[in-house]
C-alpha cells in the first residue's frame, strides 16, 4: 500500500467577482462546469467552499446519479473526466427533509438536486502515517478527501440493498467525511484493513481491531 501525501496550493479567487454570479439557471453540465472553472482556485488543494453560508433560493434538478460503486453518471453516460468529478464533489450538499435524504450540488446562486444510490463518496486508498511515535490510519477518497480514523471519523457498518438494481442486502463499511456526507470504503481498501488490523472470531462474530492515533477501534461482523 502506498501513502502519497501530496499538497496542492492555489491562489484564492472571489466568488462574488465571478462573471457567472448572474447565471440564473445552472441546470446543465456545461453551465455548471463553466461556473466551477471560474472559481476553481478557491478549492485547490481540497479546500471546501463555505457551503453552509450559501443560501440559494433557486432549486433545479439534474440528471446526474452517483452510483453505489462510486461512479458518476450524467444523462445516462459515465463521467470519465476525473478532475471535473473531483471538482463537483467539493460542492456536494446533503439535506434531510421530512425524513427524506436529498443531495445537491450547491453554489451561491442555485442548488441542483442529484441522485445518490448509496454513499456520495468512495474511499479507495488507506495507508499508515506517523506523527512522532503515533501511527494513524489515513484514508483517501476517489475525489481527493483525506481523513484519519479517529473519534470524529469512525468506521460504521450498515446494511445496503437496492431492489431496483437487484442488489441483495449486504453489510458495507462507511466513514463520515464532511458536511454530513459519508464515504463507502471500497472492497479492496477494506481488504487492506483486514491485513493491517487484527481479526478474531468469537461466538459466531468476526471482530476486526484497528489501531489509529493511539486508540483501538473494533468492528464486529457476523461470521460467514
| Oligomer description | single chain
Q: Give the fraction of residues assigned to helices.
A: 10-25%
Q: State the low-pLDDT regions, or none.
A: 1-24, 37-45
Spatial strand order of the main sheet? 3-2-1-6-5-4
Cα gyration radius (Å): 19 Å
Total number of beta strands: 15
Average pLDDT figure: 81
Largest sheet: 6 strands, mixed
Treating each run of at least 4 consecutive H or I residues as one helix, how many helices? 3
What's the SSE pattern?
HEEEHEEEEEEEEEHEEE
C-alpha geometry: globular
Instruction: Give the termini separation.
Output: 27 Å
Structural class: mainly beta
Q: DSSP strand (E) fraction? A: over 45%
Question: How does this structure look, described?
Answer:
The protein is built from three helices and 15 strands. The protein has 224 residues and is mainly beta. The strands form three sheets. It has a six-stranded mixed sheet. Mean pLDDT is 81; it is low at 1-24 and 37-45.
Quick structural overview:
The chain is mainly β and 224 residues long.
What's the layout of helices and strands?
Layout: H1 29-38, E1 58-66, E2 72-74, E3 77-78, H2 82-89, E4 92-97, E5 100-106, E6 110-116, E7 121-131, E8 134-141, E9 146-148, E10 156-162, E11 167-178, E12 181-185, H3 187-196, E13 198-202, E14 205-212, E15 215-222
Parallel strand pairs: 1-6, 7-12
Antiparallel strand pairs: 1-2, 2-3, 4-5, 5-6, 7-8, 8-9, 10-11, 11-12, 13-14, 14-15
Amino acid at each position: 500500500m502506498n501513502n502519497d501525501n501530496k499538497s496542492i496550493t492555489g491562489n484564492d479567487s472571489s466568488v462574488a467577482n465571478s462573471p457567472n454570479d448572474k447565471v440564473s439557471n445552472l441546470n446543465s453540465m456545461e453551465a455548471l462546469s463553466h461556473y466551477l472553472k471560474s472559481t476553481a482556485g478557491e478549492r485547490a488543494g481540497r479546500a471546501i467552499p463555505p457551503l453552509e453560508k450559501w443560501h440559494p433560493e433557486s432549486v433545479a434538478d439534474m440528471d446526474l446519479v452517483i452510483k453505489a460503486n462510486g461512479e458518476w453518471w450524467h444523462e445516462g453516460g459515465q463521467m470519465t473526466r476525473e478532475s471535473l468529478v473531483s471538482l463537483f464533489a467539493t460542492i456536494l450538499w446533503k439535506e434531510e427533509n421530512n425524513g427524506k435524504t436529498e443531495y445537491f450540488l450547491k453554489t451561491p446562486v442555485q442548488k441542483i438536486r442529484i441522485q445518490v444510490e448509496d454513499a456520495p463518496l468512495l474511499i479507495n486508498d488507506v495507508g499508515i502515517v506517523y506523527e512522532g511515535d503515533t501511527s494513524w490510519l489515513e484514508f483517501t477518497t476517489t475525489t481527493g478527501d483525506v481523513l484519519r480514523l479517529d473519534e470524529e471519523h469512525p468506521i460504521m457498518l450498515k446494511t445496503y440493498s437496492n431492489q431496483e438494481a437487484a442488489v441483495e442486502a449486504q453489510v458495507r463499511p462507511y466513514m463520515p467525511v464532511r458536511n454530513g456526507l459519508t464515504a463507502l470504503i471500497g472492497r479492496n481498501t477494506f481488504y487492506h484493513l483486514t491485513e493491517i488490523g487484527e481479526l478474531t472470531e468469537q461466538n459466531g462474530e468476526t471482530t476486526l481491531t484497528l489501531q489509529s492515533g493511539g486508540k483501538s477501534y473494533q468492528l464486529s461482523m457476523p461470521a460467514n
